[in-house]
């Protein structure tokens, strides 16, 4: 499946849900063509959807964010980066834990159950990849998914699959 198409669909969905938000889409590596991985399209759509949904939910209105896709070192990369307030200190290491919420004041009725990112992490790991979060002080948050890239010219599956 092509991650470029999948991520572009998530951006279109975000723009439809929040037409007043500036959501950009970019090719991270400056390349052309598809960014192909072997995987379950529905589950990977869920991963990217969770990341984009979190950017919509946890950044103030008017705060832009971007979704990027590319290839790096034999891996397919999906990045969701915002310019919001970022994560509290220490939260980047914990956001993938089940039921963890960076803002404990947010309940299930106002901010989710704390399961979305842990589910995303489990799905990414099941596809042989990794997911991480970073939040430089005062510079927003960046979520990065790395998956084994697949070359259509290759007859074998990527390592770890």
Automatic annotation (TrEMBL):
Catalytic activity: ATP + protein L-histidine = ADP + protein N-phospho-L-histidine
GO biological process, one term: phosphorelay signal transduction system
Pfam families xref list: HATPase_c
An example molecular function term from Gene Ontology annotations: protein histidine kinase activity
CDD domains: HATPase
SUPFAM superfamilies documented for this protein: ATPase domain of HSP90 chaperone/DNA topoisomerase II/histidine kinase
Database matches in InterPro entries: HATPase_C_sf, HATPase_dom, His_kinase_dom, Sensor_HK_Regulatory, Sig_transdc_His_kin-like_C
Coiled-coil regions, chain positions: none
Keyword terms, alphabetized: Kinase, Phosphoprotein, Transferase, Two-component regulatory system
EC number per UniProt: 2.7.13.3
Histidine kinase domain segment(s): 1-151
Root EC class: transferase
PANTHER family found in the cross-reference section: HISTIDINE KINASE 1, TWO-COMPONENT HISTIDINE KINASE
Name the UniProt record assigns to this protein: histidine kinase
Lineage: Bacteria, Bacillati, Actinomycetota, Actinomycetes, Streptosporangiales
